[in-house]
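Fig. S4 source data, part A: sequence.
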Amino acid sequence: MKRLLAVLAAILTLHSDVASSESGYHEAVFKSVRRADRECSIFLRDGTCGKDDCSVRCRGLVTRFWNDSVGVPAVTIDRFYKPAHDDYEYYDLTEQCVGEVVAAVPCTDVCGRAESTVQCYNDQYGKLDKKKPKFVPFTKLQHRRILRECAAMLGISRERLYLFRKNGVEYYQDAKCLLRCFMLREGLYTDEDGPHFKRMSLQCEGNYNDGAYRSKAKSCISNLQNQYLDRCSLAYRIADECVNGEVAVKNIFVGAVVQLSPPDLTDLLPGLPTLPPIKLPTLPTFTLFPAQPTTARPAITLFPPLFPTTTAAPQTPTTSRPAITLFPPLFPTQPTTTTTPQSLIPQQSTLFPPLPTLFPPTSVPPTGSFTLLPPLPTLFPPVGR
């Protein structure tokens, strides 16, 4: 009987967790600390992590506030704690405690560091709520799975996703509808109420306690809802204009689109192995016509000169010489008292005698007219009047 009551209690507890987890929000998952610890007790039953107690680390992995590569709890752990109203130093005291743990516990001891850092929150941050389920952020793998399901339901191919990635989501109506489906499936948005700020903040590791930010975002959403936009355009503009700050769900969507779309050829080039450069052998230089030796050769005269060249006479002292007349003057000059210089070159005889005159000169009478030709006879006599 006691065993039956224990089973019924476990079923009622599980049902209360599921009922209060707002399971109607599609793929959204809500878990309490109590439920996470119960799951971890099953996983670690055989002591998977060895002798150390890794239950707290397992709780952080299940509810996704712990990452071994970071080594400290994420800010989303505060969703399980409720600080006191009159405590204004809880945050600083918690950060100081975590810093001391990081300095003392090595990063290789992931279970010990998770245990000690979470204990800082238990001691300084506030009261731990183990019963109320909280939203569990999605992983990158889950983002891709949900986006793939939405693309299949809307009939969007991978090639279409490549266009969204290359040109931008804002230029395609079906891309806006894909974003709306993505937010609906993850429980981050509804057409009636708009975005859920706390879940979006948890998903993006933002701070949803800022009242000024939420007030500004609500005013932006109300303004867009009054413009009577279609559902896809309204969901896109809310994600792009109203919750585009620290709660950047659009960035998560675009990242999933990039991972699911076919890769571009330019993206594959940096990942290709670098081939070593090919070194060609150095060939000797080849000259078609070898250079002739630059030695002076004697000049070859093919034809003798028509006119023999005269050898320049040696220079003599500049003494006055008598003038030499090569040709006699046309008009003889009167003899002077000076002596006629003796010609060195004798007067040559005329090689060609004067040509005979073909036409003897005609004598022109002193008076009267001269008629070269006699008058021609009149062919046509004058006609009488």
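Fig. S4 source data, part B ends here. The CA atoms of residues 327 and 351 lie 15 Å apart.
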